[in-house]
């Protein structure tokens, strides 16, 4: 099923659910008499074409009674406990206008449907995340970012034949080959084929990886989600060996593997969906209200971005090892980069990236490094075997 059709289906489910529930449970005439006040409140919230009874009756008193009965039966000998518990819950729910209850139910059910629909597992790390964007849209956004970067770096990109371009391209090729090899090996990394929930790798199929060297003194590497990587020549002043440069490139590839860009946009989409729901069902919320909310939300997302950086470090570490580069250089690389950017303890709380020290510490953990070294040793043996085979031929 195409992503668009899936999205339409999910939206229809959410739209229809509220009306289905209200129509099903509106047959109790007692409710109409008992909830006159509630019905009056509903008129202002819902469209006039539907029955008032249906709007209020989905949470019927009959259901409350069944709750009481259930409570008394399960708490035999403790009637006071069961009665007071259910009564207070019923009372609390009655305080919410039925129209609002219906909206909240839609939001809740909608949230669950969308979450299940967008749930994916990340290769290597095995973490679950929710992606609301189709892969086509992610790549389109990636291509737009790429076109923007190409304009920004116009006249600064080194030609393909430049020795720095040749060197960096060769390193990037090693990392991409390691990724392709890893995706075929279901056991590589804790996320692949783990516990029966297979990691999502479809977004990496047919990705057109390319790397560009930008002639500028900044110490920088970045990636577009369509597989285009940029490294600045300033990076080579800090990271001198192939293994160090490979660490930076593998980190960028790690972001694409984990779909961090799509995840970040998806988190913002939740707020946009909520805003549209409020606009449609409660009141017309203006930009003067939403703008500070979006800014505050962006600030709240910072810890998730730092977590994603650490995850790209980890995926990058495994790719580095699988490509035959010594993973033990990676912690030193992040320490070096941290010094360049001027590490401060505040980075761990206020920046988009965690401090270099924290990143180095995470990768130096015995369990993490042992996993990377295991992959590295296997990879080195395979490379040696391949070299021996080539020399014999
Ligand atoms: Zn990063």
From TrEMBL:
Cofactor binding notes: Binds 1 zinc ion per subunit.
Molecular function per GO: metal ion binding; metalloendopeptidase activity
Pfam family, any one: Peptidase_M48
Annotated ranges, domain Peptidase M48: 201-365
Top-level taxon of the source organism: Eukaryota
Required cofactor(s): Zn(2+)
InterPro entries in the cross-refs: Mito/Outer_Membr_Metalloprot, Peptidase_M48
Designated name of the protein: Peptidase M48 domain-containing protein
